[in-house]
């Protein structure tokens, strides 16, 4: 008879930077069942948001996650603007797209680097993160901060990108794009890398739909799901093209992210070119009315939902966060069932887990 | 580069994400990559606390992870140094009011160096780890007893670091 063992994976683990714990029920090398244990990063953010002023909550929303921080504040601001019926200037919408897409590039480079580290390709990890520093330089030069930008505000944005800065951004993007092909070839065409990625953690299309996967995980399985197609902010004017895979394995998820890097580069270039002149913010007076709104946005990891309910005062009645990693966890557990123990880090990294978002 | 400390050893670092928003974590990982390159000081990032001399903690402590943090700390061999990265690890930061947040890391384990910032800049982080390495040397030679004196690193951005120490002291 084969004995069953339970192996705890996390919360402190060499390959996983995120404190999630998975109890892996094993039969020899095979995983029979994966059970998540969460709560290690729960900060009670939703309750703190109710205590603070709704304008202060922009900064709180930004700190839901440090990796995709701008998108959280953007989604919160879009929600409040919809609630208070504020029309923001067109230039602010374009600026939001530019910073959101730089965030997407930096997040994808980050996770591709961590993936390379997870299958033991440290050189590629270091080189990808070196390229990522150029993206962070763009953010630092345009906003003054590297990771948590603090430029999004209710009614627009706080900083403008001048034509000189725009040219600097374009130069840096060209330099990044020049370095990408070599790195991406070693990620997508290398024989030993393919051995670790192709056919690992397969999530079929119908299963992805059934489990409610979002973002690159859903798109790699062939589901056409990208909120940027709905044209929020300025995406409607930017000729956005969705990237879709088909096999639904770790290789396709990596490929979707790599192709999205190029999509984001193009989006930033187009946005800089088509950005109209004008003000970057409007003054917002009053408080959110006693009404509710569901704000949605496409984050690097997938669809992010905020449910915001006001009550006519400066404080919010309710602030609820549903992050993409939360939606992808059932898909992760499905992929882990039946895989080998050695593939666990690669599969876990490939859904791009952000536990800090998930547990808020 | 005059005040770069001299080390007799290479301090190895283990990183634990306590209750952080990931901002400090990715900045600390960026410290280890080519642009900032902590490895030039002989500092290596390891996954096993039993191999490590310096514990870098990001984020505040909550009811669930305080036991894990204590566990990681206890597994490290003496002498050891704890560096609290970012304002959350120092005081709880923006999440200090949370019902689930106990406060800074110093509520659970003795902290040697506090690095303020939200998130702390990589330069400040490197400074903090190097200060920690100096304290490690002092502890190794028996000059400083365990966590007697806290050090606050200088940082290019002004943040409420002294307040952090006062708050920690008043609750102790």
Number of strands of chain B: 8
CATH class of chain B: Alpha Beta
Order of helices and strands of chain B: EHEEEHEHEEHEH
| CATH class category name of chain A | Mainly Alpha
Based on secondary structure, the structural category of chain B is alpha/beta
Q: What is the domain tally of chain B? A: 1
Oligomer: heterodimer
- The overall strand count of chain A is 8
Kindly describe this structure.
The complex is a heterodimer of chains A (360) and B (172). Chain A has 360 residues and is an alpha+beta fold. Chain A has one domain (44-200, 225-241, 250-329, 343-359): Orthogonal Bundle (Cytochrome-c3 Hydrogenase, chain B). Chain A is built from 13 helices and 8 strands. Chain A has helices at residues 45-51, 57-62, 69-84, 90-118, 122-143, 163-188, 191-197, 205-210, 215-220, 250-274, 324-336, 344-350, 355-359, and strands at 4-9, 21-27, 30-37, 152-153, 156-157, 292-299, 302-310, 316-322. In chain A, the strands form 3 sheets. Chain A has a 3-stranded antiparallel β-sheet. Chain A has a 3-stranded antiparallel β-sheet with strand order 6-7-8. The radius of gyration of chain A is 21 Å and the shape is globular. The model of chain A has no long low-confidence stretch (mean pLDDT 86). Chain B is of the alpha/beta class and 172 residues long. Chain B has one domain (12-171): Rossmann fold, CATH 3.40.50. Chain B has 5 helices and 8 strands; from the N terminus they run βαβββαβαββαβα. Chain B has a 6-stranded parallel β-sheet, sandwiched between helices. A two-stranded antiparallel sheet of chain B has the order 4-6. The longest helix of chain B is centred in the last third of the chain and has 19 residues, at 122-140. Chain B is globular and about 45 Å long. Mean pLDDT of chain B is 77; it is low at 154-172. The interface between A and B is large, with 41 and 40 residues.
């Amino acid at each position: 008879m084969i004995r069953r063992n339970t192996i705890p994976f996390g919360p402190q683990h060499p390959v996983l930077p995120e404190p999630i714990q998975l109890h892996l029920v094993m039969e020899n090398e095979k995983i029979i069942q994966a059970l998540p244990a969460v709560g290690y990063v729960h900060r009670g953010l939703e309750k703190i948001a109710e205590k603070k002023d709704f304008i202060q909550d922009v900064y709180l929303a930004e700190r839901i996650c440090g990796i995709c921080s701008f998108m959280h504040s953007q989604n919160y601001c879009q929600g409040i603007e919809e609630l208070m019926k504020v029309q923001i200037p067109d230039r602010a919408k374009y600026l939001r797209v530019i910073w959101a897409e730089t965030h997407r590039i930096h997040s994808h480079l980050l996770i591709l680097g961590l993936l390379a580290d997870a299958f033991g390709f440290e050189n590629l990890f270091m080189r990808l993160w070196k390229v990522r520093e150029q993206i962070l330089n763009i953010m630092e030069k345009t906003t003054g901060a590297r990771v948590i930008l603090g430029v999004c505000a209710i009614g627009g944005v706080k900083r403008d990108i001048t034509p000189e800065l725009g040219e600097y951004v374009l130069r840096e993007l060209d330099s990044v794009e020049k370095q990408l092909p070599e790195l991406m070839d070693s990620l997508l065409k290398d024989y030993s890398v393919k051995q670790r990625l192709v056919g690992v953690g397969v999530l079929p299309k119908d299963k992805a739909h059934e489990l409610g996967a979002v973002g690159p995980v859903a798109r790699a399985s062939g589901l056409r799901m990208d909120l940027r197609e709905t044209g929020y902010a300025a995406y409607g004017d930017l000729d956005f093209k969705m990237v879709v895979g088909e096999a639904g394995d770790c290789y396709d998820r990596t490929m979707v992210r790599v192709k999205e890097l190029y999509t984001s580069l193009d989006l930033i270039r187009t946005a800089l070119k088509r950005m109209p002149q004008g003000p970057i913010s409007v003054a917002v007076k009053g408080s959110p009315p006693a009404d509710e709104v569901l704000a949605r946005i496409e984050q690097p990891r997938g669809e992010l939902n905020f449910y915001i309910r006001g009550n006519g005062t400066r404080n919010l009645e309710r602030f609820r966060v549903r992050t993409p990693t939360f939606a992808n966890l059932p898909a992760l557990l499905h992929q882990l069932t039946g895989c080998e123990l050695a593939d666990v880090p690669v599969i876990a990294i490939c859904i791009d887990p952000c536990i800090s978002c998930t547990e808020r | 580069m005059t005040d770069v400390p001299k080390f007799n050893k290479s301090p190895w670092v283990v990183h634990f994400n306590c209750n952080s928003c990931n901002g400090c974590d990715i900045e600390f990982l960026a410290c280890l990559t080519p642009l900032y390159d902590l490895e030039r000081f002989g500092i290596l990032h390891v996954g096993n606390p039993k191999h490590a001399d310096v514990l870098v903690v990001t984020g505040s402590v909550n009811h669930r992870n305080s036991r894990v943090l204590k566990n990681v700390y206890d597994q490290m061999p003496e002498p050891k140094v704890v560096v609290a990265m970012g304002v959350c690890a120092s005081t709880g930061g923006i999440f200090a009011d949370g019902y689930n947040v106990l406060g800074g890391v110093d509520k659970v384990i003795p902290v040697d160096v506090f690095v303020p910032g939200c998130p702390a800049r990589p330069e400040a982080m490197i400074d903090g780890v190097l200060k920690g390495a100096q304290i490690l040397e002092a502890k190794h030679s028996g000059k400083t007893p365990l966590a007697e004196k806290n050090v606050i690193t200088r940082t290019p951005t002004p943040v409420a670091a002294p307040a952090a120490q006062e708050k920690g002291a008043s609750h102790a």
